Amino acid sequence: QVQLVESGGGLVQAGGSLRLSCAASARTFSSYTMGWFRQAPGKEREFVGGISWSGANLNYADSVKGRFTISRDNAKNTVYLQMNSLKPEDTAVYYCAADFNFKGTVRMTAREYDYWGQGTPVTVSS
């Protein structure tokens, strides 16, 4: 069982930055691919980006490429989502998720992920 707790969400003006953190309880955290997803009101949950267990593989949604950066610190059992140049359309609840994935690939489908955090809201004002 893995417990994930996101933090760092809040209200920011367009063009601003936020850094989300996701702390994991598992001692095997370094075995998991970690993903970030988001869900805006009235929309389906969508993939934002993810990082493999080693950090060697990264994958981002086209909508955030060049603006968002994912990193992880396995010693701290934490994954980060640095969000720059935020836009109003980035407004959503952001979730981190863990995928026990031996291949080290970053999967983009929510159903592939085994554990989820409770989410942290991000609001970008225009």
Which spans of ≥5 residues are poorly predicted at pLDDT below 50?
A: none
* Strand composition percent: over 45%
Q: What assembly state would you assign to the polypeptide chains in this entry?
A: single chain
Estimate the helix proportion, in percent. under 10%
- The coarse silhouette is globular
Quick recap:
The protein has 126 residues and is mainly beta. It is built from no helices and eleven strands.
Describe the structure in your own words.
- It contains no helices and 11 strands.
- It is globular, with a radius of gyration of 13 Å.
- With 126 residues, it is mainly beta.
- It has strands spanning 4-7, 10-13, 18-24, 32-39, 46-51, 58-60, 68-73, 78-83, 92-100, 115-116, 120-125.
- The strands form 2 sheets. Strands 2, 4, 5, 6, 9, 10 and 11 form a 7-stranded mixed β-sheet that branches. A 4-stranded antiparallel β-sheet has the order 1-3-8-7, with no helix packed on it.
